[in-house]
Amino acid sequence: DVKVTQSSRYLVKRTGEKVFLECVQDMDHENMFWYRQDPGLGLRLIYFSYDVKMKEKGDIPEGYSVSREKKERFSLILESASTNQTSMYLCASSLGTGGDYGYTFGSGTRLTVV
Amino acid sequence: AQSVTQLDSQVPVFEEAPVELRCNYSSSVSVYLFWYVQYPNQGLQLLLKYLSGSTLVKGINGFEAEFNKSQTSFHLRKPSVHISDTAEYFCGTQGNKLVFGAGTILRVKS
For residue B62, what are the contacts with CB-CB under 8 A and spacing of at least 6? Predict the structure, then answer.
């Protein structure tokens, strides 16, 4: 089975800190995604990547950036964390785009910014 | 743009009762529809998907969904729920990326 691993289950950071959320997948998937999950809003796409060094903005990219230097790793960066970025962050990967390809999700990182 | 709307934020139901979680979609192109489940403190897991063909799709854990083009709906059903089905359920549609609804929390009571 494909495994998507997020390095931290829980994180607490201070306002203004630079925060890195790491995601690694082990099945050579082309595509990787970062979502944030908030009650009543579902999952909203922050950024995604179709290939190494490539990135595309999702629906809510403001305040975030990403890095994909290796195929298996996709990092989400909060340049200067703010309290409104307190949320659950979910990483996902897929072999390709289109409906034939399912997504595999990590277990999530719950980030609290104080 | 593709989108989905989940019509209920929470659905309480007694154990062994039937349940329906409602999802409507909006799309002007080919429709790929999904249901994912998130158990407490876990990531999302695929329940079932509709790509084409038969409009009744069977998934894991006894769930099924029916694609209804005329009503632009993809409702999720289970004839008899268990306590272990308590979770949040997300309807999704996929073009080059997966777009989710706001989620429906299913609470199964004994």
Answer: B78, B79, B80
Q: Is-contact B103 B6, C-beta < 8 A?
A: yes
Of A101, A102, A98, A53, give the one whose Cα is nearest residue A74.
A53
Which residues in chain A have their CB less than 8 angstroms from residue B42's CB? Answer: 107-108
- Which tens digit of pLDDT belongs to each residue from A65-92? 999 999 999 999 999 999 999 999 999 9
Nearest residue to B100 (alpha-carbon basis) of A36, A65, A3? A36
Question: In chain A, which residue's Cα lies nearest the Cα of B92?
Answer: A43
Structure confidence by residue, pLDDT tens digits, B10-44: 999 999 999 999 999 986 666 789 999 999 888 89
Chain B residues within an 8 Å CB radius of A21: none
CA gap A30, A93 in Å, rounded: 8
